[in-house]
C-alpha cells in the first residue's frame, strides 16, 4: 500500500514526542555551536532546476565558521569542479547541512538559505597553506536540531570492526575506465591520485 497523503503518513507514524519538537530552534545555541565547532565533516544538500544534490564537505574541525547565532560560513575547498551545489544555491538558496563527528553518534542538522560570496577578505580569512578558496557559502540559519544516534548505532559507522577493506570495492580509476571504455581513469589514475590529492587539498 502506497502512502499518498499527509494524513495517512501521520496515521502510520503518530505524533512526534516532546524531545523531537523541543530540540529544534531557529538559531545556533551554545550547545549546538559546540557541535559545529568540533565537526570536521558535513554533508551539504541543495536543490535546483535539475534536481537535488548532496556533497561531502570536510576540513579541520571548525571549518564551518559561526559568525553569529543566525549565520554560518563555509569555504568551498578544492573538489571536482562540477560546482553542482554552487549552481543550485545561485538559483535556489534552500539548503541543509548534516554535521558528523568521528566517534560520536549524535549528528546535527542545519536548514537554511545560502548565498555564494567571493569577497576577497573573507576568502583570505580561510586560507590554508597560502591557498584561499575560490568562494565561500554564507548560510542564514532557519532551523537547527540534533539527530539521535540510532542510525549511527545501527550502521556501526564508527566501529573499527565494521570497516571494509578498500580493495574489496571497485576503485575510482576502474569505475571511470569502465564508464568511458578506457578513455579516462584506469590503474594510472588510482596510482597517481594520492599524490595529486596531496597537492590540491586546498
UniProtKB/TrEMBL annotation:
Pfam families: PNPOx_N
InterPro entries according to UniProt: Pyridox_Oxase_FMN-dep, Pyridox_Oxase_N, Split_barrel_FMN-bd
Domain Pyridoxamine 5'-phosphate oxidase N-terminal per the UniProt entry, residue ranges: 29-148
Protein name: Pyridoxamine 5'-phosphate oxidase
Domain of life: Bacteria
Protein species of origin: Hansschlegelia plantiphila
Amino acid at each position: 500500500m502506497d502512502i499518498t497523503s499527509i494524513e495517512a503518513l501521520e496515521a502510520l507514524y503518530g505524533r512526534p514526542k516532546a524531545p523531537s519538537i523541543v530540540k529544534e530552534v531557529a538559531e545556533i545555541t551554545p550547545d549546538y555551536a559546540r557541535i559545529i565547532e568540533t565537526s570536521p565533516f558535513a554533508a551539504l544538500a541543495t536543490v535546483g532546476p535539475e534536481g537535488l544534490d548532496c556533497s561531502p564537505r570536510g576540513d579541520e574541525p571548525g571549518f564551518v565558521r559561526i559568525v553569529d547565532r543566525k549565520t554560518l560560513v563555509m569555504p568551498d575547498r578544492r573538489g571536482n569542479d562540477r560546482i553542482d551545489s554552487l549552481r543550485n544555491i545561485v538559483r535556489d538558496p534552500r539548503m541543509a547541512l548534516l554535521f558528523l563527528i568521528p566517534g560520536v553518534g549524535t549528528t546535527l542538522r542545519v536548514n537554511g538559505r545560502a548565498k555564494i560570496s567571493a569577497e576577497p577578505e573573507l576568502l583570505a580569512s580561510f586560507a590554508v597553506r597560502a591557498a584561499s578558496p575560490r568562494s565561500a557559502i554564507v548560510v542564514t540559519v532557519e532551523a537547527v536540531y540534533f539527530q539521535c544516534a540510532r542510525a549511527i548505532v545501527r550502521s556501526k559507522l564508527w566501529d573499527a570492526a565494521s570497516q571494509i577493506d578498500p580493495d574489496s570495492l571497485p576503485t575510482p580509476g576502474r569505475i571511470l575506465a569502465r564508464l568511458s571504455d578506457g578513455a579516462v581513469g584506469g590503474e594510472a589514475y588510482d596510482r597517481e591520485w594520492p599524490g595529486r590529492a596531496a597537492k590540491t587539498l586546498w
